[in-house]
Specification:
mainly alpha; 65 residues; single chain; 0% strand; 3 helices
Length: 65
């Protein structure tokens, strides 16, 4: 599964289940890919993606370094 599909899958899981528990590995992959994407284009960030990024940063603050 490529990174775009992984991000879409995670977003869909969170949409379906607000109580979804993200793993540290998922969080690392998501943050890494979102950082890569935002370096390229900062204009296309859906609100749910921003919320997921904030949630990951709260759960795993050490990953943001």
């Amino acid at each position: 599964m490529d990174s775009a599909n992984q991000i879409q899958s995670l977003v869909e899981q969170v949409e379906k289940n607000p109580e979804y528990k993200i793993s540290e590995q998922e969080a690392k992959g998501f943050l890494s890919e979102m950082k890569r994407i935002t370096r390229e284009d900062k204009t296309n960030m859906p609100p749910l993606v921003v919320i997921i990024m904030a949630y990951i940063n709260m759960l795993f603050p050490e990953l943001d370094k």
